[in-house]
Amino acid sequence: MTRERAPGLRAAILVSALLLLCGPALAHAQRGQAAGFVTGLLHPVSGLDHVVAMIAVGLWGAQLGRPAIWALPVTFPLMMAVGGFLGLLGLPLPGVEVGIALSALLLGLAVALAWRPPLWLAVVLVGCFAIFHGHAHGTELPPGQSGLTYSLGFVMATGSLHAVGITLGLVHRWPAGQVALRGMGALVAAAGLYFLAGALA
Questions:
Q1: 16, 60, 83, 125: which one has the fewest Cβ atoms less than 10 Å from its Cβ?
Q2: How far apart are CA 77 and CA 158, in angstroms?
Q3: Burial zone of 136 (CB within 10 Å; 0-12 exposed, 13-18 middle, 19+ buried)
Q4: Residues 22-55 pLDDT 10s
């Protein structure tokens, strides 16, 4: 076996061992907890409106650079957890679908226009939108599943989508990449406009 292949083989063995260890852990979880986590993990990626808005947060953070590149993706899950808690409690939040659609539209426009507001304003804007997304997740908790593990799942999925946006947004380092990034923002904004039309219909 060549020296170059050895690290890949060791990594595959390690991943396989970890997967084998995960099986018994899930099998002995309390009723609803494993299902709650997996359901929460999948919930954000089940709706395109959630996906594009969360990726847009990462795109905008990457475009703005430090400290926004980490401040925005940290703020969103934290405030989304607050919104999710309100949803789990059954507290109403008017205009949730409109708020989600507006988040995609306005975040997409921010990227497309390369808008550079003060950091506090960007954080407040992202935090407000996150509450709508979180509330939608919280109110859609399936019966009989753990609210805590469900919430942990959708927060982790959100972080992953932000990471995708940040990775894509790193193309702004090159002139052609800046144009491509603004084009991605325009696509997100167009999707947000479509979602808004559906929410208001």
A1: 16
A2: 7
A3: buried
A4: 333 332 233 344 467 777 777 777 788 888 999 9
Place of tokens 């995960």: 22
Please state, in angstroms and rounded to a whole number, the distance separating the CA atoms of residues 52 and 63. 16
Q: How does pLDDT run across 76-131, given as a tens digit for each residue?
A: 989 988 998 898 888 889 999 999 999 999 999 999 999 999 999 999 999 999 99
Contact between residue 80 and residue 130 where contact means Cβ atoms under 8 Å apart: yes
DSSP string, the chain: --TTHHHHHHHHHHHHHHHHHHHHHHHTSPTTHHHHHHHHHHTGGG-HHHHHHHHHHHHHHHHH-TTHHHHHHHHHHHHHHHHHHHHHTT---TTHHHHHHHHHHHHHHHHHTT----HHHHHHHHHHHHHHHHHHHHHTPPTTS-HHHHHHHHHHHHHHHHHHHHHHHGGGGSHHHHHHHHHHHHHHHHHHHHHHHHHH-
Mean model confidence pLDDT for the chain: 80
Domain boundaries, the chain: 32-200
Where is pLDDT greater, at 180 or 27? 180
Q: Is 160 exposed, middle or buried (0-12, 13-18, 19+ CB in 10 A)?
A: middle
**Cα 40 to Cα 100: distance, rounded to the nearest angstrom:** 18
Q: Whose structure tokens read 């052609």?
A: 176
Q: pTM for the complete prediction?
A: 0.75
